[in-house]
Known about the structure:
By secondary structure, the protein is of the alpha+beta class. It folds into 2 domains: 16-347, no CATH class; 350-455, Immunoglobulins (Immunoglobulin-like, Sandwich). Helices cover 40% and strands 20% of the residues. The strands form 5 sheets. Strands 8, 9, 10, 12 and 14 form a 5-stranded antiparallel beta sheet that branches. The chain has a 4-stranded antiparallel beta sheet with strand order 13-11-15-16, with no helix packed on it. Strands 3-4-5 form a 3-stranded antiparallel beta sheet, with no helix packed on it. Helix 1 crosses helix 4, helix 4 packs antiparallel against helix 6 and helix 6 crosses helix 8. The longest helix has 26 residues, at 140-165. It is elongated, with a radius of gyration of 33 Å.
Amino acid sequence: MNPSNFQSNELYAKHEKIYPRIAYGFFSRLKILSGLILLGIYYIFPWLQWGERQAVLFDLPARQFHIFGITFWPQDFIYLAFILILAAITLFFFTTLAGRLWCGFACPQTIWTDAFLWMERLVEGDRPKQMKLAQAPMSLRKFRIIVTKQTLWLVFSLFTGFTFVGYFTPIHELTQAVLIFNLSGWETFWMLFYGFAVYSNAGFLREQVCMYMCPYARFQSAMFDKNTMIIAYDEKRGESRGPRKRNVDHKKQGLGDCINCTMCVQVCPTGIDIRDGMQYQCISCSACIDACDKIMDKMDYPKGLISYTTENNLNGIPTKVWRPRIFFYACILIAIFVGIGISISNRSMAEIDVIRDRTSLFKEVGINSIENVYQLRIMNLDDKPHNYDITVDGIEGLKLIKDQDIQVNKGSVITVPVRLLAHSNNLHKRSTKITFHLTVQGDQESVIVEEARFLGPIIRGVK
């Protein structure tokens, strides 16, 4: 056979850039508001102060994680696990209830892509102008527009990376380091890495992240049911499609309300046709709803040909909001949220670790006295210094001897050596459980308890 007779089929279709048209309407305004709030939180929070420190600061060298008035420590990472569980169940709850609400209005990929699209439109113009510019041959004007757009993208991306590092390095110190070119290697790496991630994902990959890289697009259908809110086209009302004049009775022509203007496709950031049914590429941004409603207004047709609705509602079946899955997710969310709140509000602001002296098990001191030596590591988790008192019980007549007062600065740890003396007649076991009690001076209700063992010789044949 002649190889030239075979046709060459490409394994992958070449990606075509999508130029989404701007949509105007209720959902578009809601999306803009959501983006401004979330971007505002991200870019403003590092600049807020809380007393003498940054309000939100994850101080890795000091192992302190400040979130406004609360300071977390490495031993508090259990809260991070519960917060991640809470976030996952919240995502399941809202997906089951309202579809891909997260993707359309709150996902960082969506928010930053919208910011990049805004800059692109600012420089290149609206959709027709962008498409015309892309097809035009290279010229001085086209080169200038491309350089301007890329410069805006790069500056915005670097500022985004700078803000990200500002959550880990005090942002005022970071600003000074940038101005005098004195950034550390890690600060430079993470600023460039995070900036490049935003630049590539929001500037170039865009909808490909949602369609091919994000796992949520693949498993979302497992959380959908016929009562889940989705973006849907009313096929019964819209078909058959076709163009027509405004004042013509299209029903007599056998046409539905869809005039086949393709505006719903032109405004879609992932380039799909919502009229083909529910698709995993749909991120529920609702741009097609606003675009279609505007066309319906011009044609003097009722709105809602494309709407935020449920499958049951489209089929004339009442939608059930409170169903078993929703109730189950809601109960778990409330339980975890309340549990985290109670745990954080009641957590101790000090910790004590008791470490036995390993050089000797015990020492005989004087007549009938047994001594054990310990190292007490006391951590002050509060935002102010404290003086502490330490007591111990568990053995009758047990005496505690320390050589210094216990004063710990905020966020600091000190080690205090102490000696315990017990009369041998009060030791009835080879190893006796004792309990240390750490209290804040002036607040005797705040007691931190830590158990230890007191060792002694074998007495009277008792082990």
